[in-house]
Amino acid sequence: MLRNMSIRQSLPQIVAVMVKNWLMISLGMSIGYTTILIGGVFDGSTNHFGSISANQVSWLGSTSTLSIFIGSLLSGIVTQRLGRKRSMQLVTIPFLAAWLLFYFSNAFWQLYLGLGITGLFGGLVEASFCAYVSEITEPQLRGTLTATGSMSIFIGLVIQFLLGTNYNWRKCALISCAFPTITFLLFCFVPESPYWLIMNGKAEEAKKSLAWLRGWKAPTDVAAEIDEIANRHESGKCFDWNDVRRYLKRSFTLPLLLIAFMFLLHTCTGLATLETYSVSIMATMDVPINAYYATLILGVSSLSGSSLCIILVHRLGKRVLLFISLGGLCVCNLLIAAYTNVANIKDIILEVQNSSVRDLGADKYGWIPFTLLIMLSIADHVGNSTLAWVVMAEVFSHETRLLGCGLGSSISYLLRFFSNYLFLKLIAFMTLGGVYYLYGSISLLGIIVLFFVLPETEGKTLEEVSDHFQGISKLDNKVRRKKKVANCSVTPVI
């Protein structure tokens, strides 16, 4: 990846993306906190909420994703007005406020409000996540650095699960305050996207930004590249409500439909509900270790799967990796469903104390569902969860990327909301085994559909991907491992 680039040229791009990833770690921690909260609110020593119903638990598991959906709808507008970097930096303030609200909460509605704040403001920067990375990185780094975003969310999950094994949910919230604080400070040291600066008439600042990103060069060294960017943005704006025709063309609608289906697979093949209700699911399955430690192991397995994705995507390509991932999900879901039928597990345990699950009646076969759940997590993150976000950053043209990424993200979280909210209701309707049979069937459907509609984008330029969806040309399904032109000074991705 770095063979055709100097370390000096690539390092500032990596640093800028890693700073952005600190915010994604905070987002991952807020997602993981829902799991800690659901498992902890039943502990009378840390709350005074009284009797808690299953419907209240459902809303705890769904409020964050619903508010992320709302925020994602507005993310394109916010990102374009405030800038990629500034919008990401400013959302750390409400994140800090939400963590403090969790810590001091004494009423159940305050938990909903805290989850709503982290979700809403996390959703507001979804477009920034995609646009910032694609606009500051060169093609050789784009795929890998984009994938590190998903890995950062999983790191946040692991950190939160690790905190949950040692502290109650209030202390977890207090410790979590450190991450948005650090993130705010780190953003002071990285530049704004040169694309956004050009589109807003700040050419001199754009030169300084691009010079920083291309190896801390002098602004005069990137003048030609800045001129080329400016020529491609003569309209001055990439998000224009007055020109809706571009959003009605197949170059936008086909990628959006593809991304919507990939996010359906992302949220309806078992992992979304497992991450939210993992403590309860582990207890229900009678896993042979403490449910909170089991959840921590689950988070580590998610991180491992995401790391494997980053390593393998350049070798196997996105299509093959997705088919392997979905195949693994299909097998794991069907085996979990079969186990619940054999073990006569119909419902799910919601009230779980931070003690050994063996106290709940675990037997010697508890390692079977535990292994299957870990394998399901790895299988999902090795392709299905991670690559949906990577593909979303590639399939939209530059003119429609902000709105496309914002809508794609909102679709993802809307589907996640319904998946989490309906999980307990589906179990009551078709038993736990029936739900996992459904997940397995959706995984199989995903393999069949993506085989025909997903092109291989690994190693292809964004112009080639855009031409494919416009019908100008057709991408083959082979991974391009070598660049067509050996040129170290490449124009940033558009």
What is the average of the pLDDT values? Answer: 83
Q: Beta fraction of the residues?
A: under 5%
CATH fold description of the largest domain: Growth Hormone, Chain: A
Rg from C-alpha positions? 22 Å
Q: Determine the structural class based on helices, strands and strand pairing.
A: mainly alpha
Task: Tell me the series of helices and strands, N- to C-terminal.
Answer: HHHHHHHHHHHHHHHHHHH
- By DSSP, the count of extended strands is 0
How many separate helices?
Answer: 19
Please identify which CATH superfamily of the largest domain we are dealing with: MFS general substrate transporter like domains
Low-confidence stretches: 235-239, 355-362, 483-494
CATH class of the largest domain equals Mainly Alpha
User: Which architecture of the largest domain would the CATH scheme give at its second level?
Assistant: Up-down Bundle
Q: Describe the main β-sheet briefly.
A: none
Helix % is: over 70%
The shape, in one word, is globular
Distance between the termini: 19 Å
Number of domains: 2
What does this structure look like?
- This protein is mainly alpha-helical and 494 residues long.
- The protein has 2 domains: 183 residues, MFS general substrate transporter like domains (Growth Hormone, Chain: A, Up-down Bundle); 237 residues, Growth Hormone, Chain: A (Up-down Bundle).
- Helix content is 72%, strand content 0%.
- It is found in: Cell membrane.
- Keywords: Cell membrane, Membrane, Sugar transport, Transmembrane, Transmembrane helix, Transport.
- Its main location: membrane.
- It is a multi-pass membrane protein.
